[in-house]
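protien #1 (seq + structre)
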Amino acid sequence: MSEEYGPDFVSVTDDEGNEFELEHLGTLEYRGGEYMAFVPADMDEDEDFGLILLRVVEQDGEQLLADIDDEQELNEVYEQFMEELFADEEDGEE
């Protein structure tokens, strides 16, 4: 979906059956994997937020979102997303 129509939202369900609405910030390909960054859809604009990073996995021909269990992988993906997000901000300031 194009940004001109507004942000993308997805609903995810955790292992305990709780459903959450997330706003999709971006997708990144890194070391052969695909990752997506989200923030909670119901957060206030003034709130500090932590990115929710999930890995895209394919199961039975369907794409699903999964937690990133490896801490080093999580840190590397986080750094890549931060570089991209700040690069976009810097491009907009020029």
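ok now protien #2
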Amino acid sequence: MNPEDLQKSIVLITSSESNNSRFGTGFVIRQVSGTAYVLTCAHVIRDVGGTEKVKVDSKPGTVIASGEDNGLDLAVLQVYGLGDKPEINLQLSGQRGSTFITAGFQLYDKAHLIRSLQGNLGESVGLHSVGFGERVQAWDLRIDGDYSLQPGYSGSPVVDEPSGYVLGIVSHRQGEGRRGLAISIEALEKIWKFVDRERLYRWLLRLGYSRQVRLFRQFVRKHSVAALLIHGSPYYGQRWLLNLLLVKYLPYVITSRDVKVGLTRRTRKFDATALWREFCTHIQLPKNSSPSEIAQGVYKCCQTQNMILIFHNVEWMPRESMKEIIQDFWLPLATKLQNSQLTSKLFMFLVDYEGSVGNLEDFFTGGQDANNSSYTPIKTSKFSPDDLFRWIDNESDEIPAELVNEFESKVEEILDSSSGGIPEFTLDEICSRCGFNWYDESKIWLEY
């Protein structure tokens, strides 16, 4: 990495208080959906007035992780609006005598000047963190050339020239600035872990919904042909729960044929007609097929494979159309399959995102041989403090330290920011603290 490219990732950290002229340096270590994550020194945050006073390139910064209380001089900031700042790759590297480059800010008249420096790594030393009860690696720095470390370089990246990776963070200057100390990048994991998308997805699948999962597992163990209504208030994570159940708890899903139909508001105008037209395209039937003909088509599919039928946004459907789906399509299909010698599994999911469909029990208890068709509603609910405590405790070896450290207060913060544990708001908050945007990632994660 050349000095010019390095400087593109460097940010100036100042105070929002006009009478505080202290400042420091930071650098972008991650960019996610318009949000930058900046690494700096914890003492820089203290110098500029604390967590409520931080500005990063003149933009407000939120401290999401800090090692200050544990004697580790590192902090991570979350900043919106730094999309032009590229992230720098981190990696444990370097050896005594190897060359490095760094860049940071210094005061120049009434302005802040950014300058790159070069040098060599000196001895590898250890810093004992009282709070963590162990040592972290650090490097002595030796600066070459005409310039030296200045007040304000705290938080600057130390980049290993041979590899181009950040190996440490400038923490202190010594003497006239020809010497300094850098904390090894390995210490970052003690306060904030890099989380990849797939790992975060697996963690979140283990959060909450224990009652709903228990009900679902008991239900599908008893029935091979069944209909389920997943419903709840808006933003209660109905689709996330559906995805969780199918990915983790329905063993037939990997060998099934999935038919997904997403309703739109115009369905109100066309009643069930638009639904049936879309459904027919999935099973290669004429678009004007009747519900009984469609049921026969699904039955033929079940002769060779398991089937999962998913109807999204059923809250937009008139009640008469819902009755048609259940009594003219589902009940005859379920009865025929149950009375056959086939061993195929058939599950139908009706997903209500507004909690307005209400009780469908009457629909499933009427019609021909209705008692042969099994039905259960599964209602979503808020995440409780116990859900979050249990999740953090079970995943403490994996999830970021920012969530684990002082987790009682973290749980309280998450619940406060999610209106008491509304699932989608909670997932959004956790993703944000892990460096991801829930609304972007859910488009990738939600398979069903």
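The first helix runs from residue 3 to 8.
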